[in-house]
DNA sequence: GTCTAATCGAGACGGTACGTCCCGTCTTCCG
DNA sequence: CGGAAGACGGGACGTACCGTCTCGATTAGAC
């Protein structure tokens, strides 16, 4: 019967336990390492071993808090996700433009890689799918508010198909992200969605 | 649509070489096995070993024709992709409805799982991404034709934002697929997109 | 969904598959590496990872042929076990001395470390235990022959307690091995066991 | 023998500190938990975490007193080792029989599993090896006394090869233990060792 | 009719990453 | 201030696939 030979202790300068509870430093180090890694090598080059190594953490520590690779990716995304301000520019088109530009710019960076990864991961992981769905709905509500604000501002007595416009905008941006087309123009799309003088055909 | 489920490899023991050329039976058997496997276990459970085993083929045979896992997935998808008919129902809304219903029904089956897998895989595989993009554009062209037909029919002298409407519809359906919401109602969306009396705000 | 990124191929100089069957070179390389490692670092320092690395083999290859660490140790022992000659020196005491010296010398080297490892491993692994038992019985038979030879030589009409003497010798040497006492004198023991003029108390 | 199974740690919630000194209840609880665990799952299933958990003790408490896993195993063994009485039956053969039966019976129970574990562990752990050796020598001395007693009793003026007979008996029993042969007959062996009329060939 | 060249099923191979398990250390906070 | 609780870094474990390779059998077409 062999014993697992433990390594020598006493290496100074390393993080240690801070008691029987999660060490925030460790968590931060892991999330940072993960973010850096995915930014550097993309989703395909992302792996737990390397994250642990960069974070100077044990692999078991990663798995203690994030049971799967997907869960870690999601956590990184959440910790990095922008705290969106749905700015009031005074007009619906302005608001949409501001929102779209904001999101597009964010997604063009490291965060975009992450979000794509999460969507991909959600296709084969129910937990991730659930989290993503929750997040999507929050975003959708934010957009609906944006449209509602236009009503309140008096741009229109009642915006027809408000929820659908929000969903269409959302979908459009998702697809632009996932097909790497964030650089493409999208003013026409916004003008189309911001046109409040449609005939409300579904009334 | 082109999704004729080819017959299972003949039960006559094992397939043999048919000389110094590609054995079409082998190819069919592999594509079938791959399709079946992905339908059964999803992308996560898809692996070359198992495909080879189910197809009673050698792994080398797989790699001879499809240099990577991604290439095989893509090939299976191509061999299974529905051969869409963009039916002319006499009205734009009718056409859209027909198209949407058709696609939704297809995606609700095995093909949907497959398409989601492809999109997911495309996030970390450039080859797949390229092929997906090509396919997406073809589909987009088909939709644009559908809108153009409405003009020709005289429903409108000129449909404003034609390409954007097509892209919005496409995006919307993609997102419904990827968020497992294909069962949700989408008439409102179609009516919105089919409303030809908009002010053409971007002229 | 991430793909496992395979390493670049074409590294020349490495062993490759020799078809759908066990590569004897690989097996030899692994057994050698394992033998070397255990000789170098002892049982405690023996691990599969390191064996694989030294043998320039994949870990999976080790586990394909030897399902556990114990199985590999056993295999190495078997491949290294001396092909014992129970030499006929003309007298029982001479034969015993020759045997004991031979075995002691063998066990003082790398092989001894192995044999101890196997006995240890057998305490918690039924397969190993079985193999060890088989081997032990073979050795016992060899010893019994050695005693029988003394009868045939006419040293005695009938050696009393022949099987027990063999077992006692065996046990004695095992214990000397396991308690690292192979350097201790053991002539007295041999003379005691070789004394054929005992009263045969069990008749 | 000292193997009184101490009572389970008191069910009064958790044990508390008894001041700046070792709490004997805690020690007992840990030793009990360890003994129980090794009896239940064998050496392979023995681990510090589980011992701590069962003893409702902190891991640090274990390591405070027993610096390594091996040390704890050893401590448990010591606390459980039978307090042998080398009974005087009036004859050497009787004494040997009594001793052998006693030891065999003990080893057939939990203690046997434990002793095997210790021997196994000793092969890759120097501390254990040392302690085991000390214990072995004590036992050997006990056996030598047993033979000496026969002399004193006048069964023989001088028993030849006294120490060797003791060692042979010891080794024989160890091997029977380690090869799971405790059920085998061993009277022949005892008679052979108890035969005092040998020719003392080594004088 | 024989030879040649490519294809076939099979599966071993070197690797990388996975997720689990345990060791021995460390820190907190409860009582 | 002792002790339970358990997080931590580290490292081995055994598994799962990837994409490559070699084998021996097979067969069409070139000769």
Automatic annotation (TrEMBL), chains A, B, C, D:
Keyword Transcription: yes
Record carries keyword Signal: no
Positions of the HTH tetR-type domain: 24-84
InterPro entries registered for this protein in UniProt: Homeodomain-like_sf (IPR009057), HTH-type_TetR-like_transc_reg (IPR050109), HTH_TetR (IPR001647), Tet_transcr_reg_TetR-rel_C_sf (IPR036271), TetR_C (IPR011075)
Sorted UniProt keywords: DNA-binding, Transcription, Transcription regulation
Record-annotated DNA-binding residue ranges: 47-66
Matching PROSITE patterns: HTH_TETR_2
Domain of life: Bacteria
Pfam families: TetR_C_11, TetR_N
UniProt xrefs under Gene3D superfamilies: Homeodomain-like, Tetracycline Repressor, domain 2
Region spans: Disordered: 1-22
Example GO molecular function: transcription cis-regulatory region binding
The protein, known as: Transcriptional regulator, TetR family
Organism the protein comes from: Cohaesibacter gelatinilyticus
